[in-house]
Write a structure and sequence with these properties.
heterodimer, A: 247 residues, four-stranded antiparallel β-sheet, 24% strand, B: 175 residues, two-stranded antiparallel sheet, 4 helices, 7% strand, disordered C terminus
């Protein structure tokens, strides 16, 4: 169980990026983390991983996240955290030496599925391939909680679809995914829970099952939570084109 | 099997870097010693005058002449090693920054269960290099002192020939 209790992060001389956020994520959940740019999604993930200092408590099965349990968390980021000069095979060798639970079979299977070369430096991969490899590393570390921050930025739609399907197929019941993305409609059938952030605050938290029962789509829920004004665009266009705007 | 790459950041050209470091240390040592030899031979030449014997010029020790104190001959001897030491300190920053070039592999390193893996790869070689610099600097001074002690004719040492250097244990002053 990953528990966040009144987590607060304020950047030096800046606004509050994460504001008294409390959240509990259980094993096996696939959580979509949504919010506009600057909502605090990346900051929150980095706080969970201990890459940023914060106020409040973040615990993993009751123990603060530290070196003793950090291997239970893995991270895939759009900034990429692989070693560009190493090959996929060299990554496997290094990570196996660091993580005894590294999933070698899954690693090879995913490399084969995405047709990624094992003996080519990652810097020579295309952007899409780099993203795929970044996610593969996070999935194969042997972590229980896999945190992903916009992992598919730059991948085409078919590629992303493939990934969602593969993910659903390979995840074991104890593996938890926390996925930060803007691709709401794409992931709505893949996630089991949606967490919505706005200006660092938790503004929405719903399971997709509950939403289905209420007859709401994820997009409806998000629009409702963010008080999206459907006529905003037509109003703006009317103003721009000089027509009388409706109030 | 140990390879130089294991002591450097992942993906860093460790073998070449190690060769450059070792080469730099060797060259700095050699340059230091040659600088001393140059100063020492000039100082030693001043002890001699040339006299013509049987039509040939031969060097002849000037009675009462003394060689310059040891410390006066050390100008620039440690310059090369100092430069190598500065480069090694700069390499600390390079090794850390390496994890932010082309990707943010610094995240992966910081998320390893072994907290020392990142720092081992960042600081090990620069620290060993700095230790080697200090050791070579000591060896260089010793070699220079021995050259001074045994290369200077007895009776031509100045009073307090070792200057402020603590080399009395080598053999004392023969002035």
């Amino acid at each position: 169980m990953l528990e966040l209790n009144q987590v607060r992060k304020k950047y030096f001389g800046s606004t509050v990026a994460v504001d008294d956020l409390s959240l509990t994520i259980g094993p096996g959940e696939i959580v979509g983390l949504f919010g506009e740019n600057g909502a605090g999604k990346t900051t929150l993930l980095k706080c969970i991983l201990g890459l940023l200092s914060y106020q409040g408590q973040i615990t993993l099965d009751g123990t603060p996240v530290n070196r003793s349990n950090i291997a239970r968390l893995s991270f895939a980021t759009c900034e990429h955290s692989f070693f560009p000069n190493l090959t996929a095979e060299e990554h496997r060798i290094f990570l196996t030496s660091q993580f005894p639970t590294f999933r070698q079979k899954r690693f090879h299977a995913l490399l084969d599925f995405f047709e990624l070369p094992a003996h080519k430096a990652i810097r020579r991969f295309s952007t899409g391939q780099k993203n795929q490899f970044e996610v593969i590393l996070a999935l194969c570390q042997g972590a229980d909680y896999i945190l992903m921050d916009e992992p598919f930025a730059g991948n085409d739609i078919f590629n992303r679809e493939d990934f969602y399907k593969v993910l659903l197929g390979i995840l074991e019941p104890n593996e938890t995914i926390m996925l930060s993305t803007h691709l709401l409609e794409e992931v709505q059938h893949f996630i089991s829970r949606a967490v919505l952030l706005q200006k660092g605050k938790l503004v929405g938290d719903a399971s997709t099952l509950d939403l289905e029962e209420q007859g709401k789509s994820l997009m409806d829920y998000v629009k409702e939570t963010y008080h999206y004004k459907a006529d905003r665009v037509s109003q703006a266009l009317d103003e721009l084109t000089g027509k009388e705007g409706s109030s | 099997m140990w390879t130089p790459e294991r002591a450097y950041p992942l993906g860093f050209p460790g073998r070449q870097a190690l060769q450059i470091t070792l080469g730099g240390l060797g060259i700095a040592f050699a340059i230091g010693y040659f600088r001393f030899l140059s100063s020492f031979s000039s100082a030693k030449n001043e002890l001699y005058t040339s006299v013509k014997i049987n039509g040939k010029w031969v060097p002849n020790l000037i009675e009462g002449s003394v060689i310059a104190p040891f410390s006066h001959l050390l100008g620039g001897v440690s310059l090369g090693l100092t430069l190598v030491a500065l480069c090694l300190i700069a390499s600390l920053f390079l090794h850390y920054t390496w994890h932010k070039l082309g990707s943010r592999s610094i995240y992966r390193m910081k998320l390893l269960p072994n907290r020392w893996e990142l720092w081992r790869r960042v600081v090990l070689i620069p620290l060993l290099g700095l230790a080697a610099c200090a050791l070579l600097w000591g060896l260089l001074l010793l070699l220079c002192a021995l050259t001074y002690r045994f290369g200077t004719p007895d009776g031509h040492f100045p009073p307090n020939c070792w200057g402020s250097f603590p080399f009395y244990w080598i053999g004392g002053c023969y002035a």
